[in-house]
Amino acid sequence: MSIKAVVFDFGGVLIDWSPEYLFSGLIPDETERRWFLTHVCSIEWVLRQDGGQTIADGIAELIAQFPDHEPLIRAFYERWHEMIRGVLEDTVTVLDKLDAAGVPLFGLTNWSDETFPYAWENFPVLRRFRDVVVSGRVKMVKPDPAIFAEMHRRIEAQLPGIEAHELVFIDDVTRNVAAATALGWNAIHHMSAAQTEAKLRELGLPV
Fold this sequence. Notes:
Blueprint lengths: L4 E4 L6 E3 L2 H7 L3 H10 L3 H8 L4 H11 L4 H9 L5 E4 L1 H12 L4 E5 L6 H7 L9 E3 H4 L6 H14 L8 E5 L2 H9 L3 E4 L3 H10 L5
Parallel strand pairs: 1-4, 1-6, 4-5, 6-7
Antiparallel strand pairs: 2-3
Helix pairs in contact: 4-5
């Protein structure tokens, strides 16, 4: 097997992002916090912004449904940067090894187009990829096969003729890994940098 390119997810793989970092202070009770992040500012709601819905529309939608939670709903994006604690250095080290070996690197992330510029400016590691597909810009989100097709198309523009089995995709979300696998990609469920590095090595990559 010959791998010709590696595609990284960002949040949870290269960037340490979690709503818990903000809401553990805003909602100290764990049961209440879990309910809020499951039923109000849920991942499904976040994905709508990641898929191109404006933050203003997303907030208005939730406030209409949960008016008693308006301050907390507004805090989600007003204080969004407090959900990021920085880069995950151990995974960056893996990226460094691939980069040093000349492996072509690409990014595929579910991220709102309105918040992504903050990350782009503050975390230079994100600018090391040959190309990045941001879901909020293309109006598609993982695990939709269409966003993987868009990523493949962009990779092929730089590496003509590359096939799905010559790609590796790294993501911390199981449904995204399953989607890539179903399309014939080599997909790694990222749970730790050491484990991901070992999987890359099994695929013949120089890490």
